[in-house]
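Hello K.,

You asked for the raw outputs rather than the summary table, so here they are, unedited. I folded two proteins back to back in the same session to keep the settings identical. This is the first:
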Amino acid sequence: MSTPTVRVAVFDYGAGNLHSLIKSLEAGGAEVRVDTDPAAAVRDTDALILPGVGAFAPAAARLAPGLSAMRDALQQGLPALGICLGMQLLFDASDEGPGEGLGIVPGRVQRLEAARVPQIGWNSLQDVSDPLLGESALDTAYYANSYVCRPTAEGEAFVTAWSEHEGDRFPASVRRGNVIGTQFHPEKSSTPGVAFVRAFLTFATSQRSAR
C-alpha cells in the first residue's frame, strides 16, 4: 500500500512570486495548495510553509486575522517551515515595521549590522545542530535579506545554525518542536537545499500519524 502524498499549505502574504518554492515542494512529492487565509492554511494539511518573499509589516497584517489559529496549530504540533521572512514571522516583532509575529521563538527582528545590505548571495552555515540540515549536507546556503532574527537569551536555545555577514553573527536556522525556520532560501540553495526541503517533507509525513 503506497504512502499518501504529503499535503502542504503555503500561506501567501501576497508579496511575490512563489513559483520556485512551489516547484521545489512538488518535486519533493508534495501536494501543494496556496492559501491567503491564515486560519485556512493550518486546516486539513500535513505541513505549513511560510514563504520568504515580502516585508514584515504587510505580511503581519495579512497574518493578523488568523494569528491565534496559526499559533495554536503550530503549538499543537503542525510541522511548519518558515523561509527568510517566514522565519522572521516566527519571532515576536520586527524593527522593519509594525505588526505581531507568531512568537514561537522569543526575540525580535532587526536590521543587519553591516555596510553591505542587503546580503545577497552564498554564505556558510556554522554550528549546525538540526539533523535535517545535517542529513542534507547543507553547509552553504543562498541568502537575500536585510533583516535578521535576534533571539532573546531564552530564544537562543532554539537556534540550530548560525551565519555571519561582515562580522554580524545571526541565526541561520531555528527549530522549536516541529516548527523550523531558515533565514536562507533552501529552494535556491542548489542540490543540498532541495535535499533539505525533501527531508522536511519526509519529517512532516512521519508526524502525520502522531498528530
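The second followed immediately with the same parameters:
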Amino acid sequence: QVSLLFTSYMAVMGVAMLITGVVSSRIGPKNTLLIGLVIIIAGAGLAGMSETVMQIVGWRALWGLGNALFIATALATIVNAARGSVAQAIILYEAALGLGIAIGPLVGGVLGSISWRGPFFGVSALMAVALVVTVFLLPSTPRPARATSIVDPFRALRHRGLLAVSVTALFYNFGFFTLLAFTPFPLDMNAQQIGLIFFGWGVALAFTSVVVAPRLQHRFGTIPTLVVNLLALTATLAVMAIGTADRAVLATCVVVAGLFIGVNNTLITETVMKAAPVERGVASAAYSFLRFGGAAVAPWLAGTLGEHVSIHLPYWVGAGAVAVGAALLFAARGHLTGVDAPEDEIDELTDEATAVTVGN
C-alpha cells in the first residue's frame, strides 16, 4: 500500500507530462506554473486530512498532476529565461532542486515524528510560499508563437538521440526509485533517522550536480561520463542487494548513491535539452513521459518482490535496470555526438526546427 503512494503519483505525472506543453502553449508558462502549484497545495493538504492509505494514494495522484504541470514548465522556463548557456541554466535548476532534495527528508522526518500528517501539511504550506513567490517574482511569460499539440512529444521521440536518452532515463529512474521508495523498509528506523540518512543523500546529490558534473563533463565528455556514472550506480545497488540486512551498509550506500545520482541528473537533463532540434518544452515533456514510467513501476514492484520473494531482490532488479540503461546509452552514442557541440550551433538547429514546425 505504501509503495502505491509513489506509483499513483508517478504514473499520473508521467501521463500528464504529455499535456504540459498543450496547456503551457495556450495559457502561458507562468499561469501553468501557478495552476500546478494550486493543485499540489490541494493534493498535499487533502492527503494530510485522509483517514486511509488508499485515500492518500488517490490524493497523491492529484498531486502528481500538479507536479507534472510544474516540473516540465519550470525546467523549460528557467532554461529560456536565464541569462547564459543552457548548461548554466540547468546547473541553476539542479542546484535549487538539490537543495530542496537535501532539506526535504530532514524537515519531513521532523514533521513525521510529530504526526504522520505533518509532512503532507508541510508540503502544502511550502507550496503556498512558492505560489506567492511565483506570483510576485516571476515576470509574465508570453505564450509561444505556436500552440503545442499532444502528439508533439511523440513526434519528438522520432529523433533517435532523444529517444535513446529518454529510454535510458526510464531504466535509470527504475533503479533510482527502487532505492528511494524501498530502502526505508529494510532500514526499519524512525522518521527522523531515515530523514537524516536521506539528508546526507541529498547533500551529496546537490554537491555533485552543481560542482562535480560540469567538471567531469568538460574533461571526459557528456556520454562517457554518463555511462561510467550509471555503471557506478549499478555497482552501488548491487552492494545494497548483498548487504540488505546490514543497516550501516544500506545507509552508507544511500549517501554514496547520491553522488552518482547528482551527476546523472545534471548531465542527462542537459542532454535532453540538446539531443533533438525541437522546442525545449516538447523535449522535456517527451523525456519526462518515459522516465516517470520507470519511476511509477519501480516502487510497486520493489515492494511486491521484497515482501513476497526476497528482501534482496528489489536491489538486484534495480541494478539490472540501471545496467541496461548504461548499455543502451553506450549503444546510442553515435546519435548523441552533438551534445557537446557549441550551444550557438544547437540553438540554430532548434530555431530551424521550430520554424519548420510552424510552417507546417
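DSSP finds 14 helices and no strands in the chain.

Happy to rerun anything if the numbers look odd on your end.

Regards,
P.
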